[in-house]
């Protein structure tokens, strides 16, 4: 029931309507399947003895209704209609499986998109607690695994109706023989559930664990490739990858092997029971079983169709167990609503005012304590302090990424809140300490958009004092940077980051220890350029070294989350 409740949460209203249609479709398929099995008995019966056309009420009715002249013609037409029926049955089944697969596979796009949307809409404070490799795994793999679970639920649903109707028909034909078969098959199904399903469920838990490790190793190995090569840690990393990859493969081997066992086992038991019944009848009556052949034929055909249904139900159940972790993961990831932020217009004409701001990541462990600070428009302000004093957190609050636990921020006299925060963020040009450049060209990394204004890109690169270098030695704004800017030096990456921050013509330019990784000479040169670029902007600079803040109008120093000096 927990599985159904979680699926109900994940599926949209439209999805549930489609499921209802598929349910009715599966009932129709079940009826067709039952007719397909039940109709073979009278055909074989009448084909083996033409006189039954006259003795059977229903056969005689159709014989006279359509005015058949001979019994032979009746049997031939009966056979032709039977062939047409089975062709129709095959087409209907194929259509149903197409609709089933279209629905289940179509959910992958929906689930992957909703996961990505949820991650992108997540509060920054929550996002930094996430592991990017785990999020990638959830979008790429777990969403697809959940589709496998949904497919298993749908297949189980369709086969249950087939099972009920065929079983009802077998009860009607010979309830004693049906109950005997049910007893033996039931015992074996219970044994399979106890010994096979538990192992498949365990394999599913191992699959998720090893696949998560798999992604983590790939992500950190590619991210630290240079260090790994330098320290000759290749072998150690490969051993870790081997363990995770082999563990993941082994869990899938167990699942796929054990999934085949019920089919083979149940078919063996089912048809062995039929053989036992035949032997029993022969020994009991000491003659052939010609009289019981039509009934026995129904059971043979019924079992031939029933066994796959029982196997599919059991296999679907095991698939649900194997991929249950995917359902738990995606349910937990989507249970939290993304933040809904407004874009109401907000204007900075005079000042940014922080009033009694306090913030903490963990309860009773404040990072900022009762901060009061006013930044005038056009002012160049430096924020200094030792590592861990709260500088970067203060910046993240000012630019609207963190929401203060206590206190308020005013832009002029307008309270900064969820209704106008997106508009405020658009006014910020942010240059971080750790710069991420995507694998593409300079223009793509500066614009961060499909639509690139080449003139604008060149203008900001010129302001960042790197355009001339790119055009002289590389391919200008279409110079490839490599993944995370691996083809560029630290100073060049810094200038690309400056150009990116300037591209949307921000009113406020924020540097969060942006030059701390550079040597003094390059840092001094870049800071001179930044002061020149930011002459008509409000400039907020966070730095360890006070020399970085020489061009500021004033410096605010933080210590243990409090302002100690202005």
Walk me through this protein's architecture.
- Helix 20 (520-533) links the parallel strand 7 (508-512) and strand 8.
- 64% of the residues lie in helices and 11% in strands.
- The strands form 2 sheets. Strands 6-7-8-3-9-10 form a 6-stranded mixed sheet. A 4-stranded antiparallel sheet has the order 2-1-4-5, with helices on one face.
- The longest helix is centred in the middle third of the chain and has 52 residues, at 234-285.
- The protein is an alpha/beta fold and 566 residues long.
- It has 20 helices and 10 strands.
- The radius of gyration is 36 Å and the shape is elongated.
- It folds into 2 domains: 2-334, ABC transporter type 1, transmembrane domain (ABC transporter transmembrane region fold); 351-565, 3-Layer(aba) Sandwich (Rossmann fold).
Strand arrangement across the biggest beta sheet = 6-7-8-3-9-10
* Rg (CA only): 36 Å
- Please give the CATH class of the largest domain: Mainly Alpha
Q: Kindly name the structural category.
A: alpha/beta
Q: Total domains, how many? A: 2
- The topology string of helices and strands comes to HHHHHHHHHHHHHEEEHEEHEHHHHEHEEE
Helix content: 55-70%
**Shape category:** elongated
Q: What's the β-strand tally? A: 10
Strand content: 5-15%
How would a textbook summarize the main sheet?
Answer: 6 strands, mixed
Instruction: Estimate the mean pLDDT confidence.
Output: 80
Instruction: Count every helix, treating DSSP H or I runs of 4 or more residues as helices.
Output: 20
């Amino acid at each position: 029931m927990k599985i159904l409740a979680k699926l109900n949460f994940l599926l949209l209203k439209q999805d549930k309507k489609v499921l209802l249609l598929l349910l009715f479709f599966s009932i129709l398929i079940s009826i067709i399947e039952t007719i397909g099995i039940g109709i073979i008995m009278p055909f074989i019966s009448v084909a083996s003895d033409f006189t039954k056309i006259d003795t059977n009420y229903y056969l005689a009715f159709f014989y006279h209704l359509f005015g058949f002249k001979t019994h032979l013609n009746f049997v031939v037409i009966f056979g032709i209609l039977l062939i047409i029926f089975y062709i129709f049955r095959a087409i209907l089944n194929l259509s149903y499986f197409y609709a089933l697969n279209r629905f289940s596979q179509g959910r992958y796009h929906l689930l992957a998109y909703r996961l990505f949307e949820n991650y992108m809409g997540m509060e920054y404070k929550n996002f930094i607690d996430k592991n990017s490799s785990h999020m990638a795994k959830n979008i790429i793999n777990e969403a697809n695994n959940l589709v496998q679970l949904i497919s298993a639920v749908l297949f189980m649903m369709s086969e249950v109706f087939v099972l009920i109707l065929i079983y009802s028909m077998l009860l009607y034909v010979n309830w004693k023989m049906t109950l005997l078969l049910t007893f033996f098959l039931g015992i074996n199904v219970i044994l399979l559930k106890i010994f096979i399903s538990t192992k498949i469920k365990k394999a599913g838990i191992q699959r998720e664990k090893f696949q998560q490790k798999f992604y983590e190793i790939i992500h950190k190995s590619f991210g630290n490739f240079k260090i790994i090569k330098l320290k000759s840690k290749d072998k150690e990393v490969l051993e870790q990858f081997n363990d995770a990859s082999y563990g993941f493969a082994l869990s899938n081997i167990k699942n796929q092997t054990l999934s085949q066992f019920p089919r083979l086992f149940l078919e063996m038991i089912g048809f062995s029971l039929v053989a036992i019944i035949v032997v029993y009848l022969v020994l009991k009556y000491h003659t052939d079983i010609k009289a019981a052949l039509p009934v026995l034929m129904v059971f043979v055909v019924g079992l031939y169709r029933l066994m796959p249904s029982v196997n599919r139900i059991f296999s679907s159940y095991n698939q649900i167990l194997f991929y249950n972790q995917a359902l738990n993961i995606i349910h937990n990831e989507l249970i939290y609503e993304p933040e809904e932020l407004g874009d109401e217009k907000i204007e900075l004409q005079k000042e940014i005012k922080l009033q009694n701001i306090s913030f903490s990541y963990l309860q009773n462990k404040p990072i900022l304590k009762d901060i009061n600070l006013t930044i005038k428009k056009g002012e160049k302000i430096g924020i200094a302090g030792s590592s861990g004093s709260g500088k970067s957190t203060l910046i993240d609050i000012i630019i609207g990424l963190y929401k203060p636990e206590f206190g308020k921020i005013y832009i002029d006299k307008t309270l900064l809140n969820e209704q106008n925060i997106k508009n405020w963020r658009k006014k910020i040009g942010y240059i971080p300490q750790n710069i991420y450049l995507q694998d593409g060209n300079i223009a793509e990394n500066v614009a961060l958009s499909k639509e690139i204004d080449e003139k604008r890109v060149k203008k900001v690169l010129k302001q960042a004092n790197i355009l001339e270098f790119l055009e002289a030695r590389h391919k200008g704004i279409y110079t490839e940077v490599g993944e995370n800017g691996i083809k560029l030096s630290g100073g060049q990456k810094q200038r690309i980051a400056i150009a990116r921050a300037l591209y949307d013509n921000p009113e406020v330019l924020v540097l969060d220890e942006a030059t701390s990784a550079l040597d003094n000479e390059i840092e001094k040169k870049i800071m001179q350029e930044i002061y020149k670029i930011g002459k008509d902007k409000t400039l907020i600079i966070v730095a360890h070294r006070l020399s970085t803040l020489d061009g500021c109008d004033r410096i605010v120093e933080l210590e243990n989350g409090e302002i100690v000096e202005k």
